[in-house]
């Protein structure tokens, strides 16, 4: 695999061939930026969702769940600001006819300067060895300083233009920086225009009685409008949180990069209601908790970084992203936002209903502030899948049940793997299939198991590696004599002989979601 594009293509091909993700309505040539999850994809997605849900609602006694409707009263989106401000600044290249988000073009341009700095720092580290002082190097090296000045200048102008909604200034910045279209290689740009991302539809079928409603562009508003229902019915005291997972819809203009940016996707959001004035402390605390949730998966540290927002969304007083190193580079995986009382305050105004919390200890009544954590389930799916994908050269060994050659393996964290155990009878006769099925019967209430009797054991191992199954259990003639089986571990390919009675414990120890939750 060479370029980022090749790496993404390889992953998309693998996801389709092995039943993780299919293009939507493929027999009609698909529908752009919509995908369907196949038999293994849906299992992986459900496991990620369960990991998030349990981390939120089981490990925090002050967080409860909700499942609100996708359709909401149209005034919801007026109050939330989405009708007026949920826009992307778009620019087209006249030669390639490709459309881009103007702010993304600029951010990618800035990332190139950041790369230059990182390369310079690495050179310095090699040159000075143990004596290398990175902070001093960054502050004094002329090349690094020049690149940093460029970054500060571009970011400064971009922030000012976005805040003032000055689309001409945004375009001018793209021209001044000589940013070119990656497809045509020219800087022949149109003007920048704003485009609202909500999907609208009609409620009711009788002409004249219908009214425009929107498919929700975020799940968060279902939580805000239910704030008092939940607080009162579940007897919650501030600070407390409401967690929800569900579909959201955005008419993304630049929708590509597989399940990273879709028009229909799923969010996992948690709104944490706090006393005004304490929000920054909770913001920091949720940043720490969320990165710990990611790190417990054991994906290497260098895949994650924080990125503070330059332009704050219309509702936020502080915001950052957890970015992940996807096949196409570092991109936003999760957002953590301090949303102030913007949403509850506006819903109060438009609905005319009080959305206040009465603090019985201080006898005060106030509109709580909100810190939210918001992660795309599909993006998390792509993060797990892309970090898991590996191709390895396996030497052929005489007498080994492993096949030589290239093996494609998904090193998915075991508790998230779609299938946890494959049980394989060595041959399709002599009572081995029956024994294999009896073993599955002892495991299937706890774990997703798969039976496979076709082809050589080596080929069956490869098939399980390709879908990320952590354990393969082989049943052979010895099994019938002494009740032992071979258990083979996916990543190390190590095999050991164990009694059947030990299987539930061995498998359970590694694949149990509690193993992840205990680390939080
Ligand atoms: N309630 C806050 C909110 O919606 P956001 O940053 O717009 O914030 C939150 O979205 C998360 O939803 C993102 O970090 C991303 O993981 C996911 N997301 C947003 N748009 C998406 C899209 N078009 N396709 C897939 N996931 C998306």
Question: Can you give a write-up of this model?
Answer:
The structure is a single chain. The protein has 520 residues and is an alpha+beta fold. Strands 3-9-10-16-13-12-11 form a seven-stranded mixed β-sheet. Strands 20-19-21-22-23 form a five-stranded mixed β-sheet, with helices on both faces. The protein is globular, with a radius of gyration of 26 Å. It has three domains: 1-78 and 213-394, Bira Bifunctional Protein, Domain 2 (BirA Bifunctional Protein, domain 2), CATH 3.30.930.10; 87-196, Herpes Virus-1, CATH 3.30.40; 397-518, Rossmann fold (3-Layer(aba) Sandwich), CATH 3.40.50. Helix 5 (102-128) packs antiparallel against helix 7 (142-163) and helix 5 (102-128) crosses helix 8 (167-176). Helices cover 39% and strands 24% of the residues. Glycyl-adenosine-5'-phosphate is lined by residues 218, 220, 250, 252, 261-262, 265, 267, 269, 332-335, 372, 374-376, 378-379.
